TrEMBL record:
Entry GO MF terms: ITP diphosphatase activity
PANTHER family the record matches: INOSINE TRIPHOSPHATE PYROPHOSPHATASE (PTHR11067:SF9), INOSINE TRIPHOSPHATE PYROPHOSPHATASE/HAM1 PROTEIN (PTHR11067)
Binding-site list for substrate: 8-13, 71, 165-168, 188, 193-194
Residue positions of the active site: 70 (proton acceptor)
Name the UniProt record assigns to this protein: dITP/XTP pyrophosphatase
Protein family per UniProt: Belongs to the HAM1 NTPase family.
EC number: 3.6.1.66
CDD domains on file: HAM1 (cd00515)
UniProt-listed InterPro entries: dITP/XTP_pyrophosphatase, ITPase-like_fam, RdgB/HAM1
Residue positions binding Mg(2+): 70
SUPFAM superfamilies per the UniProt record, alphabetical: ITPase-like
Stretches of the chain forming a coiled coil according to its record: none
Task of the protein: Pyrophosphatase that catalyzes the hydrolysis of nucleoside triphosphates to their monophosphate derivatives, with a high preference for the non-canonical purine nucleotides XTP (xanthosine triphosphate), dITP (deoxyinosine triphosphate) and ITP. Seems to function as a house-cleaning enzyme that removes non-canonical purine nucleotides from the nucleotide pool, thus preventing their incorporation into DNA/RNA and avoiding chromosomal lesions.
Length: 216
């Protein structure tokens, strides 16, 4: 079995990558499998910079090629916030629940509205995007390969669905008439920022695996 290491501690991301790579017969390991690797500071100013930082830090320790994902939510009515700060939006000890609660509180305080409501009374507050940067770093060549993806949506004032992770329950996708958390992993992968970025990178990951750099 071939294995790819993903430099993430986010179990929601791990599940999505595991689902996507399983179709290619590739097993996924994450930093949750390597608890001795110290926390990697995400101090870049863009998603791409942070993805590169995470991939290189883990690859230099493990000495195998590593893939990393830096992603987040940009909200129009918040001038693009929380952006690269999405995971830390609600401060020290942030959780998905507290981040979502801060998001809705801020938008409500601003009076943000798209003057549109769903049949259940849900108010649509602002246009938004999920963005994802993936970086693959190969310590053998010291080279990065980067791919990006994004998906448009709208922030709803209340959650729908219990799939996915992070901001998914509040991220309504008008084209599908449901939130990101109401999609299966397969459906989410087809439209998501992560799915788009991953489709660009998969041929390169497969080539690396062909070269058996990752054979375990
Ligand atoms: O598909 C998504 N559905 C919902 N929310 C999402 C998604 N993709 C990113 N997000 C949110 C979660 C987190 O608040 C931030 C990512 O922050 P980001 O630093 O990339 O990930 P993280 O700290 O959770 O894990 P790690 O750095 O170990 O990969 O954006
Ligand atoms: Mg992070």
């Amino acid at each position: 079995m071939k294995t790819i290491v993903i430099a993430t501690k986010n179990s929601g991301k791990v599940k999505e990558f595991a689902h996507a790579f399983a179709k290619l017969g590739v097993d996924v390991k994450s930093l949750l499998d390597y608890p001795d690797i110290p926390d990697i500071p995400e101090d870049g100013s863009t998603f791409v910079e942070n993805a590169k930082i995470k991939a290189k830090a883990a690859a230099d320790i493990l000495n195998v090629p590593v893939l990393a994902d830096d992603s987040g939510l940009t909200v129009e009515a918040l001038d693009g916030a929380p952006g690269v700060y999405s995971a830390r939006y609600s401060g020290e000890g942030a959780t998905d629940e507290r981040n979502n609660s801060k998001l809705i509180t801020e938008l409500t305080a601003l009076g943000a509205s798209m003057n549109e409501e769903l049949s259940d009374g849900t108010q649509l507050l602002s246009a938004a995007q999920f963005r994802c940067a993936l970086a693959l770093y190969d310590p053998a060549s010291a080279e990065f390969i980067v791919a990006e993806g994004n998906v448009d949506g709208v922030i709803a004032d209340r959650p729908h669905g219990d799939g996915g992770f992070g901001y998914d329950p509040y991220f309504y996708v008008p084209a599908l008439g449901c939130s990101m958390a109401e999609l299966t992993k397969e459906e989410k992968g087809r439209i998501s920022h992560r799915g788009e970025a991953l489709r660009k990178l998969i041929p390169i990951v497969e080539q690396l695996l062909q070269d058996s750099a990752l054979e375990k």
